Records
---
Amino acid sequence: MDYATRPARPEDGPALTAITLAAIRETARAAYSPEQVEAWSARVAQSARIAGAFAGDFVRVAVDQADSPVAYFVLEADGHLDMLYCHPDHGGRGLGRRLLAEAELAARALDLTRLLTEASELARPVFARAGYTLLHRRNFTIPHEGREVAIHNYAMEKRLA
């Protein structure tokens, strides 16, 4: 399948939420417990951010031949790459690598000197192959159903020369 990329549109919000939830609920199960996946996906489902609240962010989507989003990233003005998600049905086709390259081009156009992210266990190798270095493991909790669910990700950065 051939994919194109384009800027995100406000009407993409529901599709981006669906991509994120599918990636967490299906793909993340390979590295996180069912309890962690449930807490993570519940937090995302309650967030208004994905559903179109991208004021000031650079958001780009990969789309299929029908112009339906299948992957995306959110780059904040300070160089924080907040989100990089791909729908599981479209994984393993280089979309993460392609979107990371586009995020880097956008960062350079903004005269940023580095990109920062918090990569999941499964995304960490994708970022590493794109030249990101590991800063440290982040252990934290997500409030869920009256308890704190322990989970982790990795702080990573890419210096832009």
---
Amino acid sequence: MGSIESYETAKGRRYRALYRRPDKKQTQKRGFTTKKAAELFLATTEVDISQGRYLDPSLARVTVADWLQTWLGARGDLRATTRSRVENIIEKHIVPELGTIPIGNLARLRVQEWASALPGAPATVRKIVNVLSGALRFAVEDGRLPSNPAQRLKLPEADEVAQALPVPRSGRRARQGG
């Protein structure tokens, strides 16, 4: 059972919610402007803990760049050529745009905008997005994120390009004109 305490700041009274994480360590969330907001946070957190859905917010503060390195280091199953390709994708396409964002602040809209702006063929875009999605899936499984913001994005289909081009006619029917 948690508790609420008030404290004074230069901007006036604020409230903090004190509670125990599942590992039994006491922690707090501060800065609530109303007691009601602190109580609501505390109640929601206690329900999440009791139902096994609690995610420690401090674990989601790692940046995308740092998490990608952690994820890649844990991937002992990758062949050398695959590892090299993944490192190149991370360095060239993911880190410049998303690297400084904490994984907990990575919004689905931001990831969709990033993916939509990626250059290259649809298959290349899919490979790049799959690297980020795989790393974030690992973050979900590690209890750092509630869901994967790079999952089920709207990506270009490889067939869209092929459907836009006329199909060349070949063989006897093409020579006969029909």
---
Amino acid sequence: MAATESPRSAERGLRADALRNRRRIVAAARQIFEERGLDAPLDEVAERAGVGAGTLYRRFPSREDLVEAAFAEELTRVGAIAEEALLCEDPWTGFSTFVERLCGAMAADRGISDLLVLRLPNSRVAAGSCERQNRAVGELVRRAQEAGVLREDVVPEDVLLFLMANAGVIEVTRGAAPHAWRRLVAFLLEACRPVHAGPLPAAPTPLQTERALLGNAEAKGLRAPGREGHGRD
């Protein structure tokens, strides 16, 4: 498939009704992906947009096309987060703020959470965002290490590992302990320091942790303890 065209260029030349349908589809997709993640059924997107499935697929032949259109502005903003962090005079503040901002964006939006741990290989917008971010992350790491505030064995790829870990914690704890990701990020950042110090945010309670584990099991088709039957149906 050819590289995806920009959302603005995709709208050029469309009739008023076609343009209206396209924008309704994009808005509906943005809402559903935010609520349910990027693997949400596209039939639900069409239903919320008030169009037929055929209309959706004519405008967006692939899921990737729709994802890029729905998140074009967010992809651009994500690409700028690391560059903005470089403006911090303190190297540790720049690095830690960058990680915290990305992880916070993931907690607020399932679609963003999915986007930050995958690649859209045919998207010019996503590729440009990724390239900008990779360059800036490398500079953030270099500056912090030269200042002696980041351990020498940290590499830019570690940031992606942080995001993957954060995505997992967010997914499991979303309903029971929605702020648990903050503690994970605090642990990760403290582990990056040559000398560990500083208070941590509050941990989730035992009850919140138990509820999160039960909810995750149920989401995978397993019955929660105390209900009729055990294991898989």
